[in-house]
UniProtKB/TrEMBL annotation, chain A:
It is found in: Cell membrane. InterPro entries: ABC_transporter_permease, MetI-like, MetI-like_sf. This is Sugar ABC transporter permease. It is a multi-pass membrane protein. The keyword Disulfide bond does not apply. Residues 93-305 form the ABC transmembrane type-1 domain. The chain crosses the membrane at residues 33-60, 97-118, 130-150, 179-203, 224-246, 252-272, 284-306. Belongs to the binding-protein-dependent transport system permease family. GO terms for biological process: transmembrane transport. Keywords: Cell membrane, Membrane, Transmembrane, Transmembrane helix, Transport. GO terms for cellular component: plasma membrane.
UniProtKB/TrEMBL annotation, chain B:
This is Carbohydrate ABC transporter permease. GO terms for biological process: transmembrane transport. The lineage of its organism: Bacteria, Bacillati, Actinomycetota, Actinomycetes, Propionibacteriales. Pfam families: BPD_transp_1. It comes from Kribbella sindirgiensis. Gene3D superfamilies: MetI-like. Keywords: Cell membrane, Membrane, Transmembrane, Transmembrane helix, Transport. InterPro entries: MetI-like (IPR000515), MetI-like_sf (IPR035906). It is found in: Cell membrane.
Amino acid sequence: MANAVLPTVAPPPDVAGPKPKRRPKPKPKRQNLAGWLFVGPVILGVLFFQLAPVAASLVVSLTNWSGLNTPKFLAFDNYKELFTADDTFWPSLKNTVIFTLAVVVLTIGIGLALAVLCNQKVKGIGIFRTLYYSPAVTNVVAIGFVWFWLYDPDNGLFNSTLRTIGIHGPAWLSDTKTALIAVIVVAIWQGVGYPMVILLAGLQSIDQSLLEAATVDGASAWRRFWSVVVPLLTPSLFFLTITQFITSFQVFGIIYVMTSGGPNNATSVFIFHIYEAAFGHGRLGYASAMGWVLFVIVGVVTAIQWRLEKRWVHYDN
Amino acid sequence: MTTEAIRVYNRAPRHIPRRVVILAVLIVLAVVFAMPLLWMVSASLKPENEVLQSPPSFIPSTAQWANYSQAGHGLLPFFLNSCKLAALNVGFLLVFASMAGYGFARLNFAFKNLAFALLLSTAMIPSMVYLVPQYMLFREMGWIDTHYPLWIPNVLTPVFGTFLLRQAFRGVPVELEEAAKLDGASIFGTFWRIMLPQVKPALAAVGALTFMGSWNDLFGPLIFLNSTRLQTMPIALALFKGEYFTQTNLMMAAATLTILPPLLLFLLAQKYFVQGITMSGLKG
C-alpha cells in the first residue's frame, strides 16, 4: 500500500527534462531480451498485483459475494442500490468533494508560499524545511493523538485559549457543523509538505538569468513572481493538482483515526464507506461496486485535468 | 499568503534588512507548523497530573524522561517490525525501480511505450478498487497475517519510483554510457557501475519517500495483519492508546518516538531529496 502515498502521474512528454542527445542512427538496435529483463519484474508485478485484481473486482461487483458464500450473480443491483438506496453514499460523496477541493487548493497554495520561503538563502534553512515538512512525516495515529487533544472541547489547547479571551469554543470533532472543517485543517497541516518539496525543486531549477533579466527590465519582486516564477512552475503545479486530487479523493487514515466518519456521517468519506462495507459488513460485492464508481470518478476528473492542461501550463520548449 | 516574504519586504521600511524580515516570517510559520508536534513533545515530558491542567502550560514543570523509557519499552518489538519492513521496502524497491527506470530510459525493446503507458496508468487506480480481490489472492497464497503483503506487492509495483528514476537516467549524458560500452562493459555492468552512481540523488529521493510510505502505512497492517506481535509502529500506537489511554503523557511519548526516525531521515537527506526531484526534470 506504500504506493498510495507515492502518487504519480504520466509526465507530459515535454517536461521530461534534459533529453539525451541522440546520434542520428538509421535504426537503433533492438535489445528485447535485456530490455524486458530490466522492466519485466515491474510489469509483471503491476499485472499480477494490480491489473488482474482490478479486472476481478469488476466481476465481484456484479455479485453478492461475502468471501465465504457461493457468489450469486446480481447484474447491476449493487450499483442500483448504491445510487438509489444507500443513505450514506451521497453525503459521503459530498464530503469527499468538499474535502478534496479544500485540500488540493490550500495545500498547493500554502505549499507554494512555503517553497518560496524555503528557497531563501538563510542560515539553518534545512531546519526550517524540516519543521515545515515534519507534519508530512508523521503517521496518522500520532496525528490523531495530538489533534484529538488540541481539539478537546474542555481541556484542549484551542478551547482553553479561546476561554481566556471569553469565547466558548465549539466541540470541534463531535459537532456536525465543525467536524469536517476540523478534519480538513488537519489534512492541510499534514498535506503541505509534499507540494512544498516538489515546488522547492521546481524553484531551484529556474534559470536565474531569467529573473535577472526581469530585474534589469525594472520588474518589482511581486511582478517577477507572478510573471516569471509562477508560469515557469506551472508544470510542477499541474503535476501537483493531478496527484493531490488522486490522493485527497482517497483520504482514509485521518478520517479513520479522528472521527471514524462521525458524528452522524458528517465526516464520512467515500473510501471510509467502502472500507466499512468490505471489512465491517463483509459485503465484498457491494464494496467492489463502490470501488469501481470511485475509479470512474477519479478517471474522468483526471482526464478533464489533462484536457485543460494546455490552457494554463507552460513548457519551456 | 503566497510570497508572503516578498510582500512583506516591499512594505517594510528600507532600514529593516530583508534577511531579518525573511527570518521573522520563517520563524512565525515554523511555530505555526510545528506547534502541534511541539505540544506533543511538551506533553510527553510532563508528569501525569500536569497534562490536562487548565490552562495548559507549554513548559513542563520537570522533564520526566522516564515517560520515554516506559513508552519505548512497550514499543520496541513493533519498532523492529517497522524497521524490517522499511528496509525490505526501500532495498528491493530501489532495485526494481532503478532497473525498470533504466530500461525505459535507455534500452530499446518491443512494446516499450505500451509497457510504460500501462505502468503509469495504474497510478490512477485507487487501491480500494483492487483491495478485495487482492485480499482474496493473499488469502489463497497464505499471506494473510504475514509481512509479505506489506512489502512484496509494493516493491514490484513502484510506479512513482520508476518514473522518477527514468527521468533521472534520461538526464545522464549518453557519452558516459557509450564509453563504457567501448570498454566492453555488459548492459548490466554499465547500468550497475556507470549509470547508478549518476542518479544517487534520485535514488535518495525515491528511497526516502518509500521509507516514509512504509513507516507510516496504516491501511496495509490494519487489513492484512491480525497478530499483535507482527504489528508496525502506527498500529502499535493505536494499541498503546487502548492500554494507557488515561495517561496522555505516555501516549505522547510513544507518538514522539514513532515520528523520530522519519524526521531524522528528512533532516539528514533533505538536500538530496530536493535535488533528486529536481533531477527528474519535474521542473519549471
